[in-house]
Amino acid sequence: MNGAVVATYVIKPPTGRILHYRIAIRGSRSTQGFAIVANGHKPRVGKELPWTASWINEGKVKAGQWTVFEHDYVLPPESNQLGLVIHNLDKEPIYFSDPHLTVGAPAEPDKVAIAAVEKIKKEMAEEASHPRPSPLLKKHDELASTDGDAIIRLKMRAPLRTDKPDEVGVVTFPMPAVDGSQVPLDFKIEVDKPGKLIGFKWRKREDGRNLVCDATVQPGPKGSWVHYEALILVRKGPVDLGGPSTEKWIKSTACVQWNNAEMLAIAMRLANGAKDSHAYAQRVFEFVRNNTGRGEPFKTLDASAGLACGGSCTNHSNLAAALLRAHGIPSRTVAHMPTWCGLLYEHWLTEYFLPGEGWLAMDTSLGRMLPDRRTRVVLNIANEQDEDRSFEPLHTRFVMPGAPFQSVAELSAALFPADLTDTDGINIAENVCFLPASDGALFDAAQKAFARRWSEFAVGQQHAARFAVLDGAAAAKKLDAIRGALTN
Fold first, then answer.
1. Which residue of 22, 367, 432, 451 is 20 to 30 Å from 299, comparing CA positions?
2. Looking at the 3D structure of the chain, how many domains does it have?
3. 79-92 tens-digit pLDDT
4. 402 close to 177: Cβ distance less than 8 angstroms
């Protein structure tokens, strides 16, 4: 094991007796560090920390020399599990052998270990009553405090393969659309192996809002990276005031499931005493932000799974949408790439519609109502048909079940994810610059330029040299040069 952890769990261990743990550990270089963390567990009750006692021991090991670690644990009577986790504190491998857990004589529970848990609980309670902004929230707020429109560089990638060398497939990427807050300035796409990009074309989906790019590729059995870059101009507003029809963004769907007893009971509880839709939305935000589930495994990304396990930002977005719809508030999930984070797969937030105010955003994972529009590039606003396709087998080749269809890259039958990376963090959105001030004339010029770009992208034409000129002008914040590049 290198830079990793190995966990062992003992179910229904004896309590009130000495549990003697012994294991031999050996290093692979001069001196390496390790830590062994042991926790007594009990059944979870609400949001209470399900620990009864906690021990942390650190040590050093040498290359080629076995070191024996031994420790006695005595669990309180309410414990139903003992967890033992070995942490390698080094990047180089360490090795372990011959682990034993021996039951010994009766003894009093370890008061120091019990006190350690009480200390953690107290710190958690203080944190809950006086929450500190996370580093990501601080980064968002720092970006939000800047004046002017943003130009963002978006980099999206997909590691793909085929079974046979001559097979060709199509990967369909969600693309930044044009709306009142964002407009793509330019775009380029390539495969990391020459000649493997057969062609591409942009198209507008049937919903009239979302854009996609179909890239025909021949990645081969060993796999290739397919990646695109785009420059996008993003401004604060205006808020999308376009109201939904009565049929849109209100139904219970495959991944936004609200028409069930549990979800309706939660919605009723949140609505009790809420004076208006604003107050109810705030309660939904706080409930989803704080929800950690009830200890079930993380397997899917839908709203019901979010209730059960807490889950990811996608679970959060689907769960918030479900609770809003259960109260009759139209709501939708938005796949996007944020600039307040580094590499990641994608991120999701929820938008809800209030008459006269339009579509308002809440990001329960980030912890911010109405996050600044200039800190994200929107890739997909899911419609209800997309939600109902969130568990289709071909769709889930490239994402866990429960994410709306076309909110991520979709693969044709000949394509499969290639084993070219050990992380999901393959995409990024970065601020190229904030312009000196919000410039409506520049935004209008960019929209007109995109109408010309569309005629190129729709037939598979791209201009790398033009992209480089625009990229350089944006990095230098030269408005005249940006305008000039948009006219080419």
1. 367
2. 2
3. 999 988 887 777 67
4. no
